[in-house]
Design a protein that fits this description.
CATH superfamily: Amino acid/polyamine transporter I
Shape: globular
Number of strands: 0
Helix content: over 70%
CATH architecture: Up-down Bundle
Number of helices: 18
Oligomer: single chain
């Protein structure tokens, strides 16, 4: 028999190895979590709130539909970056041409700026609700703080901060728990698919899909994977791909679960009380106060601030990285200003446009709608382009995308295309 002290050492060694393996696994989580959580930005919160306020529990089922669709597309984008060691923009250019990529990137940049403008407006209004000060002050301050953070801090610092910000999404779970729920309608809305009956309902479906399965998430996912590759000296493709699959599944599940809770909250409080006309997330927060109490107002508003700080770097970062790749500029969140001036200038330009839009009686809800429609129309096209790239063995270095993921991504493109057609025909 082994001495007692030897047994203790063996047990301690095994415990430390298990702990080390667990910590390494957790450390590799991040890109999928951040990308999934960034999907629930203030504009997304507004879209889900409007869906619940207008139609009650009717569209709860969309959250279960969009989870696998969103997850497979994000996996495809991650796999393109991991296998090809190129950004999504670079891979599309290699497969097709710069002239084909240019209009896609321009549409992405335009939609993202509208989204950032709407998000800044929502965050400024949220801070104004909490403090009583004018929202204009917070609008400019928020824009400056987010831009400065992206420029001054390294990718690791930004990624770590964004990962922690995902916990703000729990605010919407707590809010839903206080709603007086019609359980029969909730179960029916969750599992009974009812096709849209009007052009307005088709538009809502397109907005929900365009908000949830957004092109900027495709580019951000691939950009984060590249940043991880550049900072990871011991890169193991098979291991990273396995971890990323679970990372993305968890991140997209949380994103769609929060979507479910937001629609639930709006349906059980606003719709049930006859409040149908909600123009932004801050207005929704004010409307919730007399129904659910001041604590719910505070929690809901803090949620807007947290997810806004998470989403805006994702929005401006993804479009700026895509533009930089299009023009072959030096780029990357680990670069200093003097190493990537054109990239950071594009980022600053995008943020300035978003701030200026808010100064000229900008209507966030219209921007949100147009942005969601652009995303809804652009996403199926971009998914098809990515599918063809991901099945190209030359670009993917003999590691093409698996057939099950490719089939599900094809279904995603088809669903989004049919929804867009339905919006114009019905």
């Amino acid at each position: 028999m082994l001495p007692a002290n030897c047994l203790r050492r063996i047990k301690l060694t095994m415990h430390n190895e298990k702990k080390s393996k667990f910590l390494r696994t957790i450390k590799n989580f991040g890109p999928g979590m951040v990308t999934g959580a960034a999907d629930d930005d203030p504009s997304g919160v507004a879209t889900y709130t409007i869906a619940g306020a207008l139609y009650g529990y009717k569209f709860l089922w969309t959250s279960w539909l969009t989870w696998p669709l969103m997850a497979c597309v994000q996996m495809m984008c991650a796999d393109i970056a991991l296998a090809s060691e190129k950004s999504l923009t670079e891979a599309i250019i290699q497969k097709y041409s710069r002239s084909l990529a240019a209009p896609v990137i321009f549409a992405l940049f335009t939609a993202n700026i509208l989204n950032v403008a709407a998000d800044l407006s929502a965050m400024a209004d949220a801070l104004a609700i909490l403090t009583g000060h004018p929202s204009l002050l917070y609008l400019v301050l928020t824009g400056i703080i987010v831009t400065a953070s992206i420029i001054l801090f390294t990718y690791r610092t930004i990624a770590r901060t964004l990962t922690w910000l995902t916990f703000f999404l729990l605010a919407y779970v707590f809010t839903a728990m206080k709603v007086e729920t019609n359980w029969e309608q909730l179960i029916k809305g969750s599992f009974y698919f009812r096709p849209p009956e009007s052009s307005a309902e088709w538009s809502m479906i397109v907005a929900l899909l365009g908000t949830t399965i957004s092109p900027y998430l495709f580019f951000w996912q691939s950009s984060q994977e590249l940043e991880e590759l550049r900072t990871n000296k011991n890169f193991d493709y098979a291991n990273v791909k396995r971890l990323r699959k679970w990372d993305i599944l968890l991140g997209t599940f949380i994103s769609n679960l929060i979507m479910y809770f937001i629609i639930w909250t709006a349906a059980g409080s606003l719709h049930a009380s006859g409040i149908f006309n909600i123009e932004n997330s801050a207005q929704a927060a004010r409307a919730l106060e007399p129904l659910l109490g001041h604590a719910s107002l505070v929690v809901y508003t803090i949620g807007i601030l947290g997810v806004g700080m998470l989403a805006i770097p994702t929005l401006v970062g993804s479009s700026s990285l895509a533009v930089a790749d299009l023009f072959r500029w030096q780029s990357g969140l680990n670069k200093k200003w003097n190493e990537a001036q054109a990239f950071y200038s594009t980022l600053c330009l995008g943020m300035c446009i978003a701030i200026i839009l808010n100064l000229f009686q900008f209507n966030p809800i219209k921007a949100l709608f147009y942005s969601a429609v652009v995303n809804g129309l652009l996403s199926p096209v971009l998914i098809v382009l990515c599918l063809l790239v991901s099945r190209d063995s030359n670009i993917m270095k003999n590691r093409p995308l698996g057939k099950p993921t490719a089939l599900l991504a094809s279904l995603t493109a088809l669903v989004m295309l049919c929804s867009a057609v339905g919006m114009f025909l019905f």
